[in-house]
Specification:
Length: about 350
Amino acid sequence: MLTVSGSAVALLVFCIISAVWNGFELSNLGQQADRTLIVFQANRFCPATSRLQEDYQRTIASISGVQQVAPIQVFTNNCRASLDVIVFHGVPSDKLRRIRDLQIIDGDWKSYEQRNDGALVGRSVAERRELSVGDTFTIDRVKIVVSGIFSSQQPAEENTIYTHLDFLQRTPGLNAVGTVTQFEVLLSEDANLESIGQQIDDHYRGGPVPTDTRTKGQFQASTLGDLIELIGLLRYLGYACLALVLGLVATTTIMTVQDRVREFAVLRTIGFSEKRIFSIIISESIILSLAGGLLGIFGGYAILAWSDLAIGAEAVAIVIQPTLNLVWKGLIISAILGFLAGIAPAFQATRTNIVEALRHV
């Protein structure tokens, strides 16, 4: 039981770390992510420091290959790394329908469009903050009324609150009328992303405000650079947890074999082959490892599913979301570790001299 519980804790930690990394890999995946550019103010990091003229969209929209340009005003309660970042995106309602595939699960679009202070709240935010349609939600200087709750195929979207652009621009204290944080540019299938991005940056290089244009994936990777490095280091902790499981199971299996030397000698005497003895010990080792794996992996899955956590930095969120692929991966790794841990003691049991083993006390 001590071995199983120790393995369970180690695999629980591995499961959580893997879920964080998996969330990063999925953070920039969407139906249009590969054909989308983000235009941001050059040499800026936190969204609160980026100010682009709203009329930039006219010039950007006139470039060949550009299908859609959506001005976005971003507001967040915290630019630093946090497990509870609230991100507001102010987008014109007609543009929002075109650039996002949102499924309204409570409320409706009509209510949202009719209220200037109306907002569409992501399911994750609504569950974390216990919000429902009709509720008033206030954070910092922004006060909105929940007009709808939406789900999305992209988990990171569900940690966002969408409001009307002019409402967020006119929020007291933001002083953002006529400016936006960024532009999201959707390109045609045959458009050259690098060429169009270069055209935009070259056009505004001399002012009034220079831009930095990148693909959506590159933009998010750059924004989360420091956080990604930290997550990368945590992956080594995950590997250390796997090594711990291997050591725990191997030690327990070796001790078990040593305590049962006479039993294995008797089995070999009555006709059990070395191959059969080997398979028995390997099976016990795999079962021991899988027992810890089941407890740890399903425990981690339950914790992550219940807590609905997301790590955010600079208004970009990484959803710590467990998946069935993660469960299967964990179980397969547990079985492999059990097999490796059982090899040495299995050879020991099959190679011991029968006469000496029968004399063992």
